[in-house]
Amino acid sequence: MHTVWKGAISFGLVTIPVKLHAATEDKGIKLRQIHDKCKKPIKQEKVCPICNEDVDSKSLVRGYEYATDRFVVVTDAELEGLKSDIEEKAVEIVEFVKLKEIDPVYFDKTYYLAADSNGSKAYALLREALAKSKKIGIAKITIRSKERLAAVRVLDNHLVLETLHFPDEVRSTVDLPQITNVKLTAKEKEIALSLIEQLTAEFEPTKYHDEYRERLEKLIKSKIPKNAEQPSNVINLMDAMEKSIASIKEQKKRA
């Protein structure tokens, strides 16, 4: 499993070396843009509309648009100077709370926390303490130069880290239409509760699947020619060496 981040969990005087692994993956089918004439992928080129010229990576800088078409440039050195001393080195747990106190709107992405070398005992200690106390740790972590709020909890006898949105990243419900004048009868409420009761079951994620993706996979499979050649990653070593020898002889003749 690919390691996304490597560092340590710290709470109080305890330090636990850990590795971070993505717990989820996007199974969506990606369709590329191709030219309808030749059926080949198009190129995405970077062009400056003012100078009317192609721009390479060496000519690119970062900028913030503070007004329409007005930017301030922020250099790599300035960004480097803003980084914390503990960046990408520690998951600093600042307090412990109950999981039910966090509304799901704050949750972003899930990562598995695996014990690194010599960290097994401390890892097990935090895992058991969280499980027994029924608490989760609220922490700060920096991933890919972005500081994140996170929750450390136990899942299937392992520690997981859930990145959280900061409060100012969650939009307010103030601007949503307010439904306050609707009158509901006792009978309507009773029927609604009865319907919920009838449809209540234990959550089993394996029951659910992406029907659209399955239909798209079936459609794509039906369009692939049955006699299409399958790409091979196997390299004929003898053929490769013979071509190399022939190429070297040709170069010597020209010299």
From TrEMBL:
It comes from the Bacteria. Residues 52-181 form the Ku domain. InterPro entries: DNA_bd_Ku70/Ku80, Prok_Ku, SPOC-like_C_dom_sf. Keywords: DNA damage, DNA recombination, DNA repair, DNA-binding. Homodimer. Interacts with LigD. Belongs to the prokaryotic Ku family. HAMAP family: Prokaryotic_Ku. With LigD forms a non-homologous end joining (NHEJ) DNA repair enzyme, which repairs dsDNA breaks with reduced fidelity. Binds linear dsDNA with 5'- and 3'- overhangs but not closed circular dsDNA nor ssDNA. Recruits and stimulates the ligase activity of LigD. This is Non-homologous end joining protein Ku.
